User: Fold this.
Amino acid sequence: MVMAESTEPLARILVVEDELDTAEVICDLLTNAGYEATSVESGEEALQYISRNYDLVVLDIKLPDMSGLEVLRRARSESYDQPMIILSGYGTGSDRVVALEDGADDYLSKPFSPEELVARIRAIRRRIEWSPRPPTRLVVRQLELDIARRIAFVRGQRVNLTPIEYAILAQLMRNAGHVVTHEELSRSVWGENFGSDYRILRVNISRLRQKIEEKDREPTYIITVPNVGYYIPLAR
Assistant:
């Protein structure tokens, strides 16, 4: 394993490269650009390190134990969302398409210039910094959802919701002030193949009202729009 340190790293970057000389060159390059770089030599090591707090991954497509694309797929299946740049020494147009479809953020063919790799990394970092961050909580009047912990509070009191009830409430709160149709709400919770029988949705709405409304038969949070859907008013 090769370590390269920076006194004021802009980001922590994991380099997955089994050729030691190449790994050292890339780590030195990234260190000189102001980043902190760590290199590992195999796919299994990469998957262990990706789970830690790295900001970006530079991933060679050819590794001794598995393809870099397999590392990419497994990382994405585990919901690791670090940006990943694939490096390929024998890249083809189809390789690039597969890598991008599997969740790579960029693809670079060897040999590449040092300036180009640094430019690609900086472009991805700028895109992340400029992208709006998803909310960590949703608040509508006295109703609050802690997104990270998947916990609901009503008037300051925690409410225990089933996963389905939570998903319904989150969708309505994200669209507070707007009507969410039966179809939109059902498909957001149960998937695109959900049919047009909305009875299960109505049952869950009824249970949800019992948990969050002061009077579930006189709701002030989840309002029915007959034959259309539901909405949460921003004010009441």
Remarks:
- The radius of gyration is 24 Å.
- Residues 114-130 form the longest helix (17 residues).
- The chain is about 40% helix and 20% strand.
- Residues 1-9 have pLDDT under 50 and may be disordered.
